[in-house]
Please model this.
Amino acid sequence: MTNPYRTQNIAFFFLFLATLLIVVPVGLILVVIIQKGLPAINWQFLSDMPRQGMRAGGIFPAIVGTVYLVSGAIIFALPIGLMAAIYLSEYAKDNVLTRIIKLAIVNLAGVPSVVYGLFGLALFVIFFKFGSSILAGSLTLGIMILPIIITTSREALESVPYSFREVSWSLGASKWQTIRHIVLPNAIPGILTGTILGLGRAAGETAPILFTVAAFYLPQLPKSIFNQAMALPYHLYVISTQVPNVDEKIRYGTALVLLVLVLFMNLVAIIIRYQFRKKKKW
Amino acid sequence: MVAFDIKDLNIWFGRIQALKSVDMQIRRNEILSVIGPANSGKTTFLRMLNRLNELQLNFEMSGRVELEGRDIISMDTELLRRKVGMVFALPAPLPLSIFDNIAYGARMHGINDGKGFKEIVERSLKQAYLWDEVKDRLNTSAFKLSGGQQQRLCIARTLAVEPEVILFDEPCSGLDPISTAKVEEAMLKLKADYTIVLVTNNVKQAARVGDMTAFFLSGELIELDKTDIIFTTPHDERTDGYIRGKFG
Amino acid sequence: MRKVKEFIIEKLILICGLASIFFVILIFLFLLKEGLAVFKTVSPFAFLFGKSWYPISEPARLGILPLILGSLIVTLGAAVISVPIGVACAVYIAEVAPAKIKEVLKSGIELLAAIPSVVLGFIGMVTLVPWVKHVFNLPTGLTALTGSIMLAFMAMPTIVSIAEDALYSVPRVYKEGALALGATHWQTIHRVLLPAASSGILAAVMLGIGRVIGETMAVMMITGNAALMPHSILQPVRTLTATIAAEMGEAVVGSEHYFALFAIGIVLFVISFAVNVTADLFLHRRKI
Model:
């Protein structure tokens, strides 16, 4: 009869191996991108327009475009998402409607990003006649990150102790007053975390912007929200697959900039969450 | 002379009936102690008086409750809860400074003393016998106070909105004897200006503090009378049994 | 006056609460609006089961079976790789890993979740593709297998974190009871904890697979984009998602091709809807 402890050791070894199989490549990917991308990074790369059909010069318009798109997305998604979260946390009753709303959120979160692109094309670009524009792209990205904002904001709101609400109501404050003065202010760190995570997600997505805003190359920066824009993820895609003979370090450099941008936002969100947990007053 | 007039009050939560045909009156400027074992309905009764019950699932009621002659159901809840304040069992400061805790209710109702709430805060803290202990640190967090101090803070907070009635829901259950004594002392002084309803599991406290005492059992009001009578010669043998500690 | 303001605000809150339902319906409606038109030229049956996808030939051949199979092969391949490794990793992190490494591991996996798919596609292009080509001696490394490997990788964070949650929520008494009876830790894990967490783990797998089915960029960059009926995992394929992304740029608005791409969008939407609803049911069943 085999020694069960021996079996355990073998099993645990394989479990460990499986874990390494996931975690080690992550580290390797980061190392490779940093190693090969760093040589390309200099002020010129970040602030210059692309030249020679993207083979030289910088990625400034892509950075700017990404900033515009992400800002637009959050302007749309934050108010609606926060209010939806307030509804779910403070007003919704335990009934079928609430269940359906939650199911809808789960679904929105699961819709493939390219389908969002199709939707954005059909609704914003064509039906509303915004054309391929920052407006169309931002709105599409906004709807895409709505589930993230709603879910994290709701968790933040629900983590405010119920007793605070009860006290406020018993003093004669209305439901909305209680939300505005007690619940919301104490949920802000969590809401902020969710917002930044949403921003990070919006910054990295390519498919939703393919047909709604992204341009291969623009000679100038966009001047209005009805203009097209370049964007980092699309730029990386284009110089990796559509443009031959791009210097390797430019490709890695672009990947590095995008990666740093996204990871930085995630890091900030995590730090906020951590600080908040430490400093919680109750 | 009558603060609350309660007629044939029944309360259900879903299919469970929490209160059955309660008829009683609560007189002004008196302390009513409400006693009874667990699940007797005493807390449900208390929370009816400021309509806090309505926030629970599947709440239904029948009957009539009047405050100073007005039906509390047809009254605006915010106005009712300003007139009928509540102090909870576990001290529940808001995550604000001491000053802002007291001023909170006043801010929400738009009650202003023209001095940035300073007068209201000082007056309320004095009424709750807490002013001397905190007057130098009004801007510190309320969580830094001891349990007994926090509870007196909650009393002051309720007083700041100028109520007529104050409900106490087992206010000393989390407190040490000295803090308990301070809260009881505050209650006795407050009855001159307010009507007080105290729900308590501590039968001796009920006897010390109440002018009238009501005994609830299984959702019914068994007996309501002057405290001396309830504690010496109660009419109902169940009242007698509970007070002697035979059950509950 | 304040009451009026509050009434308006509370109505706005309600409207936003309903927003998510509104958007789901809106998305579906617009997909239908543009996608159903394709069924004027081709029957649903021929669309779903037709073996040839030549949308720009005259006459256009609009059968998406090669694309469905492409998605299927890549997804199944990813599942085969990611499920055992992902669940194993979840078990390791939840039960075996020492506390200090646990946080590092969890951060590492969260990091993976944050990497944009176009970056992973790029890395896949420059590392995995040549590797697969070399190891399997193929004319090109752009294959379904390459896609499966990368997608398995991308599904891991979902699978690991939800499976981990499932394991954590198994009541402690189960574990303590088994250990008290003399079972080893490993025996407790595979005979008690895993079965008890099974519906949550199943949900984790489904959500991970759901993520894989919907993946576009990484797939587009490393699976080769050959819209032909696949015969093996070692050849280039085209997925449903990549088709839309790659061809929408060329399709004229209002053309048959355009409608067909939207029809593919309908298929994707329905699949992800089904997967998400089912996974959600599993998660809720477990919580009760």
Remarks:
- Chain B has a mean pLDDT of 91.
